[in-house]
Design goal:
alpha/beta, 14 helices, UDP N-Acetylglucosamine Acyltransferase, domain 1, five-stranded parallel beta sheet, globular, 517 residues, 34% helix
Length: 517
């Protein structure tokens, strides 16, 4: 027998009854029992029954949507699937069983594929009998094939292709054993938890980790490998960050920028599968909003604000400092530009963007340092977008080079969109240089400090919880500053009126006489 996620090579030698698990394959200290050949155990279903059950299931599917519309049909389809799941009276009937399976398969395709990573999927699991806590994210309905045997605590994250299995086939016998996942556990992509396992809490399973049957993982531990073995991650950054009173001066100190670069590299190398970190901006919230959904809603609203009065449809867009790429992907899906290019100075960040979003049409990423050169032709971009890219504002020389480059690549009627921290009068070294150099004119300028502070207040608990769960203690101070948590110097500067958060829409001044490179 060969177990899940096991690699058999030419060097693997086997004997009768061997059981292999792991990468590379290793023989287990037990053997498969020999069974005598038995006849008549596999029965085929008549072809007419298969056709009949398929016909009935499709009639029910089409009838539901035909009579109730898309919304009503989706609700009715879910009710039928749930009812059939709970209805075991005709379970011995082959035809009824086939109809039930086909309807549930259609439900997974037509409904569940659209509610993955949302709380609607969690509600559906609870309706099926799963015991799931609050603030849990599951990517797909196939992640929990045995709904009613799973107990999941609060703040648990399952990434793509993570799987919790409560069943096993042993000597052709189906065995079902419950699985318990404690609070604040993270199952990264491809990780598998077998039946009977207990994750005591705050456990982290690295990608393609296999937790064997009936294993118990102690709380506050990390696991990796096939089969899972205890793992201790080594921190890459240490020391505390210095903080300045004046935000613009703080942005101009090279020590902080070096540390920001190191942090940038760390989040791309270590936190590649954490859903909470897809966006890293400070967000925007209307003053009457209160719900922290923790899935990027307020980060997307910041993009909406910056892009509010600029049309991206059928335009060529460049985002400077695209970060982990979630904002770029959202803009492409929402505004449908002709092309959208995200650039970043970090190779690891760009690799992560390509890994996550390479399949999205019209979206691409590349490594480029906006302080030196933008690798695009003259007047090839209609819009250049810059969201909180403080790392390019460390020196006047870099600012001048950046302005020259965006002036070169923008079309004559192109737009440069910027948002970030500035002084209390809305001035900023970049804004001042753009306007005094006569390269751009300001079309719109808005102070959104209150909205950004409100968004930071709403998300303070989830961001603080993220830092506690994933960040090494030596880096907490800087990460709290970077996240804009209440009590940090940057947050207090905004709250007490020593700094403000502005968004600005610049239009290229077509009368300017800047030579094209």
């Amino acid at each position: 027998m060969v177990g899940s996620l096991t690699r058999i090579t030419r060097e693997t030698n086997s004997n009768n009854g061997d059981v292999f698990i792991g990468v590379p394959a290793r023989a287990m200290p037990f053997e498969m029992p020999m069974r005598e050949a038995m006849e008549g155990q596999i029965q085929t279903i008549p072809f007419w029954k298969t056709c009949f059950s398929h016909y009935i299931s499709k009639c029910l599917l089409i009838g539901s949507y035909w009579s109730c519309g898309i919304v009503g049909g989706s609700i009715l389809h879910t009710i039928i699937s749930y009812s059939l799941y709970q209805w075991h009276f005709y379970e011995d009937s082959e035809t009824i069983q086939q109809i039930k399976e086909k309807l549930q398969e259609d439900h997974r395709i037509f409904i569940c594929s659209f509610i993955g990573n949302t709380q609607w999927l969690i509600r559906l699991f609870r309706a099926y009998g799963a015991n799931i806590g609050n603030n849990v994210i599951v990517p797909d309905i196939l992640s929990l094939p045995d709904y009613n045997l799973v107990t999941i605590g609060d703040n648990v994250r399952l990434n793509m292709n993570a799987l919790i299995m409560c069943h096993s086939f042993e000597q052709r016998i189906l065995k079902l054993v419950p699985v318990i996942v404690g609070n604040s556990c993270v199952l990264m992509s491809g990780s598998i938890v077998m039946s009977g396992c207990k994750l005591m809490g705050n456990n982290r399973l690295y990608p393609f980790t296999l937790v064997m049957k009936n294993d118990s993982l102690q709380s506050n531990t990390q696991w990796k490998g096939l089969p899972a073995q205890s793992y201790i991650a080594k921190p890459k950054i240490s020391g505390s960050a210095s903080v300045c009173d004046d935000i613009v001066k703080c942005q101009q100190k090279s020590k902080n920028f070096d540390r920001l670069s190191l942090w940038y590299e760390q989040i791309s190398n270590v936190y590649t599968n954490v859903n909470e970190l897809q966006f890293t901006n400070w967000c925007y919230a209307d003053l009457d909003e209160r719900i922290d959904d923790n899935i990027g809603y307020y980060s997307k609203k910041l993009y909406q604000q910056v892009l509010a009065n600029v049309i991206l449809t059928d335009q060529n867009v460049l985002e400077v400092g695209c970060g982990r790429g979630a904002g770029a992907a959202w803009c492409v899906r929402t505004y449908i530009p002709r092309s959208y290019v995200g650039i970043d100075f970090s190779r690891n960040v760009i690799n992560l963007c390509e890994q996550c979003y390479s399949t999205i049409p019209r979206l691409s990423f590349m490594i480029a340092d906006s302080k030196t050169h933008l690798p695009f032709q003259n007047e090839s971009m209609d819009v250049v977008l810059s969201i909180e890219t403080a790392n390019i504002f460390d020196e006047i020389v870099a600012i001048k080079q950046f302005v020259d480059e965006i002036t070169r690549v923008l079309t004559p009627d192109g737009y440069f969109l910027w948002c970030g921290l500035s002084n209390v009068d809305g001035s900023h070294v970049l804004i001042d240089y753009l306007t005094t150099n006569n390269a751009f004119i300001i079309k719109e300028k808005a102070n959104i400090t209150r909205n950004v502070l409100h968004a930071l207040d709403i998300q303070s608990n989830s961001r603080a919880d993220f830092i506690e769960r994933y960040i090494q203690p030596t880096d907490h101070e800087y990460c709290r500053l970077f996240a804009g948590l209440p009590g940090t110097r940057l947050y207090d500067n905004m709250q007490q009126g020593r700094a403000e958060y502005w968004r600005v829409v610049f239009c290229k001044n077509i009368t300017t006489d800047i030579s094209l490179i």
